[in-house]
Amino acid sequence: MTATIAATVAAQKAQVAARRLRFGLAERRQALADLRRAIIAHEADLQAAVAQDMGKHPAEFTLLEIVPTLAEITHARRALPGWMRARRQAGGLAGLGTVARLRPETKGAALIIAPWNYPVSLALGPLVSALAAGCSAVLKPSELTPATSAVLARLVASAFPPDLVTVIEGGKEVAEELLAQPFDHIFFTGSPEVGRIVMAAAARSLASVTLELGGKSPAIVGPGADLTRAARWIAFGKFSNAGQTCIAPDHVFVADSVAEAFGTELRRAIAGMYPKGLGSPDLAQIVSPRHAARLTGHLAEAQAQGARLVLGGASEARRIEPTLIEALAPDCALDREEIFGPILPIIRYGALDAVIGRINARPKPLALYVFDTDRSRIDRIIAETSSGSVGVNLTLLQFSHAGLPFGGVNSSGIGAAHGHWGFRAFSHEKAVLENRFSPLSLLFPPYGRRARRMIGL
Ligand code: NAD
């Protein structure tokens, strides 16, 4: 495998200099159109593969995998002329008599490593940005979604020559081999643990990185929240894809004064969305038996330590019912680790200070959700905490907003994706300064009286 991987990357790298000259606006737009055509041609195969890998409902597949990817292509094709244009920059005194421009240039050969939870959009979304920026790309999907990975390989091969884009399938070993290659940029989506490995590997060749990671994203339901709305958005955000969403609310803090009423609304929302519990057709399955066992093990541990099951708890093979749990012991696995499954701890609070303190004492989350109608409380939470993004009275939707970057901060991620930010991740912004009549030459040595006078000595 090593020889194949090295040869593939060498072939892509060999094209970097030539591509710089011939992969302009028209060619990039064409590549994006080719990608769109290939996605549409393989949509049915992708849907079947994702259903096989994850049991995702076709509507959820279309809504959360296909629609955002095609929207990203449409947006990039439309905005590309503006993104690619060199921008004039104003300068201070030192810029007198010069013309400054910021010129985005392609970084070159990119590696994209994707996770399994949205195996289509999190593989092809970064590819859209790479192609928009004029990069070649090696795409490595997750080994945990093998059927989808195989369709992605066919889809990419139908649209692109391997020295422009290719899929290399495999697990950790293949990823390690790829990380040993001299890529110019590495775009990784996955867990913070593997993110550290990727960043250490990138240090060897000083490749730049975008790390789209995870963590525990809290939701806060304040005393002024519209509880029906909060419950529906939280249930949607948490239980879509069976909780296997990087920006799903991991746990919910709810103000004491509304905790009972919110609990009722949340149970009602869940019953409305998944009326048959485990047998609900809209409930996705857990990606692997190992992950299902991890979740049921954590749930059993929490209950053994005194946590109270409020709803659900049943599981069968790779399906776990939407589950609500209260009174979690501090430091049990559900409290410590990103849950990444359909189990939602509810934590009652009296003082907002304590909630903010607790969030700030932990790694910075990828997303934070606030449900309230009180502007000053909403603003206070936004101002006093740090997270990749904030959703106010909604969940997940910030991922799809074309005008917003998507990314984390520190342990939830480095850099950003989507739209212009994705294009910039795969581009180098080259500073170009041109001399017209810079007066600096008057100050060249020897430092005579005139130079000393000019700098005030
Ligand atoms: P993961 O880190 O286990 O795997 C991601 C990718 O890394 C896979 O392709 C895998 O083959 C590869 N990999 C695994 N071990 C590796 C190693 N030692 N060296 C190099 N590569 C290796 O993540 P996952 O389980 O696929 O996804 C779940 C995690 O991803 C969660 O933490 C979730 O929050 C996060 N996530 C983040 C985003 C985001 O956009 N920020 C999106 C989806 C998922």
Automatic annotation (TrEMBL):
Q: Which InterPro entries match?
A: Ald_DH/histidinol_DH, Ald_DH_C, Ald_DH_CS_CYS, Ald_DH_CS_GLU, Ald_DH_N, Aldehyde_DH_dom, Aldehyde_DH_NAD(P)
Active-site feature positions? E212
Does the entry feature the keyword Nucleotide-binding, yes or no? no
Q: Does the keyword NAD apply?
A: yes
Recite the UniProt keywords alphabetically.
NAD, Oxidoreductase
Give the highest taxon in the source lineage. Bacteria
Q: Residues in domain Aldehyde dehydrogenase?
A: 6-432
Q: What SUPFAM superfamilies does the record tag this protein with?
A: ALDH-like
Q: Which family does it belong to?
A: Belongs to the aldehyde dehydrogenase family.
Q: Quote the protein name from its UniProt record.
A: Aldehyde dehydrogenase
